[in-house]
Amino acid sequence: MTQIDFQSRVGVWWTSDAWSIQDVRSRAKEMEGLGYGSLFYGEAFGKESLTQAGALLGATERLVVGTGIANIHSRDATAAEAGSRTLSALHPGRFVLGLGVSHAPLVEGNAGTYAKPLATMRTYLKRMDELSDEVEPGAARPARLLAALGPKMIELSGTAGDGAHPYLVTPEQTASTRELLGPDKWVVSEQAVALTTDREVGLRRAHEHLHMYSQLPNYRNSWLRQGFDESDLVVGGSDKLAEALVAIGDAKAIAEHVRRHLDAGADHVVIQVLGDDPSADPLPALREIAPALDL
User: Which residues form the Luciferase-like domain (predicted)?
Assistant: First the structure.
């Protein structure tokens, strides 16, 4: 397996686009101090992924930083490969390049073209591999994980990448991903969490979180493959879907849900704290959850 130096088996997933990079860096330092092994983040409308990775890697000592995911429509393959090699050369084993095809409404709404996601990703990875070894000579290429939901993209993440970064999946889907990839590829699963013992509050946070995703075909198809049906795919998701995809409860309950992914075959799980608004500070919840995770 391509090297990733996770210091623990649980990390954080936090898109901090509404925060200044100075504040994000200070919170990344505290996450590292709490024992979390990574910080992953998305890329859709805000900060540029590779620039942010460099800022976070430079602010920490052991924390793995991962793009979850870098949108392949936002930069060409040569730029992605060259930038990621430089980050790897500066911080060996601590940068993970997560790549994804994004979603048709987001790409086409930004004047891009969204066609044949599997073929597009395969070609993109091939072009990355064609970059000369003279770029950062001697540096190890960072691990590449694909945002893989369907079986064909999961297969590609194993044959042309170093593993998968499943997002909004059940532990059972983590197990399916592991089965498809075999034992020698990385599986880094995301798990949304709502730290509250008030079920109604937890469900409200979960439905708000799922509101956008429930309108994107890639996720809707993924949830149907995971055993849900059309009645679960209402905007914001049904209560059944929300409670399956979001761990709601106290720190102990959340830790138990995270361990279900680990027991299902995940190498590493990144938890995404859901607050009362998308820009809420995740650190209070992360401080409370950390002891239950034995970090």
Answer: 10-268
